[in-house]
From TrEMBL:
Name of this chain's protein: SGNH hydrolase-type esterase domain-containing protein
Species whose genome carries this gene: Fictibacillus arsenicus
GO terms for MF: phosphatidylcholine lysophospholipase activity
UniProt domain SGNH hydrolase-type esterase: residue ranges: 36-223
Transcription recorded as keyword: no
Signal peptide range: 1-19
Pfam families: Lipase_GDSL_2
Keyword Ligase: no
InterPro entries in the record: Ester_Hydrolysis_Enzymes (IPR051532), SGNH_hydro (IPR013830), SGNH_hydro_sf (IPR036514)
Alphabetized UniProt keyword annotations: Signal
Length: 239
């Protein structure tokens, strides 16, 4: 009986020692996450302040998955595709972080459209073409810097949801055309397009509560983070 007890205690001790060792080991997957883009990943809220964005909630998904994450968010409110393109060409800090990244999210293009809508609505489609061309340069530059990185590009929800129907008849097709160009460039580059309108638009009052502003609240950013996480997990399964 005593021998059996000693043997059992030895097994328990060895198991406990190994378990402690395994628990103290870091994740075998180190994630270097870089966020690029405009006010949405920058965390602009519906009331002009800043809070957590979808990128911060995506970071939590990585952490909950057991990864050790290095996170850099270079998104800037109001950024156009020209500005992001120039950053990737000239900003050495961003270029180095892109080289080191395992995952990059990109949200860009809406301000190219909005600026032209405000200055000259008849030239709005020109903003879409510029955004499309610049996105091609952005994605190809990322690949030149880091051919192995996983890149996820966001499609925009409808920012005009509170406008009268007759106004939306003009504006929504422009947003759809922008998303179509973003998706085309993303897929042509071998990256992953992440649509968000299918989740945000049916419940826009819940996620975009200020009729005077087209930014999301925390609930909306959490929804977008889940869509990105689904895309990341899907890519993981197919590898």
């Amino acid at each position: 009986m005593k021998k059996r007890l000693v043997s059992l205690m030895t097994v328990v001790a060895l198991f406990s020692s190994n378990a402690a060792t395994f628990a103290s080991q870091p994740s075998d997957r180190h994630v270097e996450y870089v966020s690029l883009g405009d006010s949405i990943p920058a965390g602009m809220t519906p009331y002009g302040s800043y809070d957590l964005s979808y990128t911060d909630y995506l970071l939590k998904h990585f952490n909950n998955g057991g990864a050790v994450v290095d996170y850099n968010n270079f998104a800037v409110s109001g950024y156009t595709s020209d500005q992001l393109k120039n950053d990737l060409k000239d900003n050495n800090i961003i270029r180095q972080e892109v080289r080191d990244a395992t995952h990059i999210t990109v949200t860009i293009g809406a301000n190219d459209l909005f600026q032209r809508l405000l200055s000259d609505p008849s030239s709005a489609y020109e903003g879409i073409i510029i955004a499309s061309d610049n996105l091609q340069t952005i994605l190809s530059t990322i690949d030149e810097l880091n051919p192995d990185v996983e890149v996820y590009v966001m499609g925009y929800y409808n920012p005009f949801a509170y406008y009268p129907e007759q106004v939306q008849e003009f504006l929504v097709p422009l947003n759809d055309a922008l998303n179509a160009e973003i998706e085309k460039r993303t897929e042509a580059n071998g990256d992953t397009f992440v649509p968000t309108g299918n989740r945000i638009d049916p419940h826009f009052e819940k996620y975009m509560p200020n009729p005077e502003d087209n930014h999301l609240n925390i609930k909306g950013y959490k929804v977008i983070a889940k869509e990105f996480w689904k895309a990341i997990m899907q890519n993981k399964k197919t590898k």
